[in-house]
Amino acid sequence: MTRGTLLYIGQRTLLIVLTAFIVSSIVFIGVHQLPGNAFVGERRTSAASQQALLQHYGLDKPWPQQYGTWVTGVLTRGDLGESLKQRGQKITPLLLREARVSVSLGLFAMAFCIIFGMGLGILAAVKQNTWIDYVASFLATVGYSMPNFVTAFLLILLTVTGFYAWSGGNFYEDIGWGKLEQIPVPAIALGLLPMTLITRLTRASMLEVIRQDYVRTAWAKGLRSRVVIVRHALRNALIPVITVLGPITTGVITGSVVIEYLFGIPGLGKEFVSSIFQRDYNVVIAVFTFYAVLVGLANLAVDLVYPILDPRIRY
Amino acid sequence: MAPLLQVEDLKTHFHLRDGVVKAVDGITFHVDKGETVGIVGESGSGKSITSLSIMRLVPEPGRIVHGRILFGANGQPKDVVKMTDEEIRDFRGSDVSMIFQDPMTSLNPVLRIGFQVREAMSAHDRFSDEQSKSRVVPLLKKVRIPGAADRTKAFPHQFSGGMRQRVMIAMGLSNEPSLLIADEPTTALDVTVQAQIIELLRDLNREMGTAIILITHNLAVVASICTRVIVMYAGRIVEEGYTRDIFKNPQHPYTWSLLRSMPRLDAARHSKLLTISGLPPDMSNPPPGCKFHPRCRFRVDRCLEEEPPLGEVGPNQFARCWVLMRNALVTQPEKAAAAEVPIPPLTAEPAQIDQRSEPDRPGAVKA
Ligand SMILES: Nc1ncnc2c1ncn2[C@@H]1O[C@H](COP(=O)(O)OP(=O)(O)O)[C@@H](O)[C@H]1O
Ligand code: SF4
Ligand SMILES: [Mg+2]
Questions:
Q1: Nearest protein CA to atom 11 of ligand 1, as residue
Q2: Measured from the CB, is residue B292 less than 6 Å from ligand 2?
Q3: Which end of chain A has fewer CB atoms < 10 Å from its terminal CB, N or C?
Q4: What is the mean pLDDT of residues A157-166?
Q5: Residues with Cβ < 8 Å from A89, sequence gap 6 or more?
Q6: What is the ipTM of this complex?
Q7: pTM summary value
């Protein structure tokens, strides 16, 4: 790693911290503009006990002061505060536990969309204008026009109801979390849309690269076709594909909100949705900030892959 | 002795939606062992497709539709056209190598120079892995890349155009092929670098005995290294012979015009140069008769209807013309002498020969 690379990582990290700061303050301000509070809906609370609760969580203080306390807690102790709904629950360990779930799901989805997206794209390009290409391109177009909740719905219909009926109740998807075999279906639901994007991009990029002079040179050297395709064409074709991995990672992270909710997966996304419904503002702020950092880190990771693939890029 | 390469009646056509483009249409020539042969002609005359046919690298939708390409001096020559996929793979880069016009785009941008040279050897079994590895630096030295030992780890973008072309040559020669095809290897380079590359090719030909087919539109380059020259026009050979004969006594009006349009060192710096006006024929709809007749100042009636054969016009010299320059210079001396000759229009657009002092203007002989 060169000094330039380290400097670049430093700059980007600083930028992520700055983004997290801005995101958290915007959400913080926004949330405090909303009427009512977390305890409004609770049945057993009198006006007096509500006041006590507000006091306990420091919600009676002016919000700049609240924000100051919160930021200090985050920076000094990594403490994101306490849940307003799950009494006594510290948010940091909660989010870390849930982030593990979301990250496993996200990595599965990314692996799925990268491996199958690139595979299908290469196949379609190498077999251009054959039925393989047409089928791959058709699937890519269909998948691309389906929002992930529709995909999720269809997959649930297929793997739960469908499989159950066809196998006479012996074999079906058991929706939920905790077992390895419960990961693929939601991961596919999450990864299908970005997969189709990668398929289309890889195909287009491969077709472009296959016509390049250096690929003709590779053939002229007498290299085997596998070497020409993989080492000479694919390596170059992947460069533009890597460009979209940043936005795709962001898409997978945000998409997980819907998918986790639909599949009942106890991850960040599900927490995010329920915290909003429950007006658990402390959790809302924490999850938002967490997402901002996650997106930043994912994009940084992608950007660090570039120079490995393309030696012309140096930081 | 059998020639190293014998191309017989080669036809490479492109079947397009709106017709057939006969990019190469029945050419026959040979290259002897260790020989340097030049192929000249304007852009679009079929030079690249000829060489790509020899490598069986004709781009889609092009096809070799006819002819034989026999390769191999000793024993039984093999027909490249009939080779299996594996045979042609092992033939490329090992028996015949090719280097291309644009060195800026011909090397893989993401792979190291040394690796790209080594890889050319690993693809064939002439050298073991260790030999391939240890040959890289000497090869780069041979093509005169300064500081060769330190530059194997460099990427192509760290090299100039001339240096990249040297790398291409090193790569091409790495398996010691008996034939190197260089398709306009200096066209994309600036003049001083051009001269260095041509000199390098000449020296390598002498040292290693590698036969060279040099494709160029630059007649000065042909004169400096090729013993024989083939002139192509519209997918055909229009003249062929020893360089010194053709330069002294061109028999085809096209060759004659090419030579008249060539800037000469011994001529006054601003002497008028002749350029061949008019466009090369539209290859999907070539003219009847002699393909050159719309641009020919010496044409006779016959030229419009009947295509002349490639006939022997002297010892080892062939030309495809009904009139031939030696007759034209006698019977139509005024046309030969004139810089400009009014050519009776065949179509709405009259052809003309115009005068220009700049040798490199667009529309001049250019490939
Ligand atoms: N990919 C292609 N598709 C269609 N026609 C082509 C293609 N490549 C070459 N040709 C035709 O072949 C002719 C000869 O091309 P080429 O051999 O490249 O010419 P040169 O190298 O002499 O400039 C061109 O005039 C063009 O009409
Ligand atoms: S055959 Fe006729 S038209 Fe063709 S080059 Fe000769 S003189 Fe000119
Ligand atoms: Mg060419």
A1: B23
A2: yes
A3: N
A4: 80
A5: A82, A83
A6: 0.87
A7: 0.83
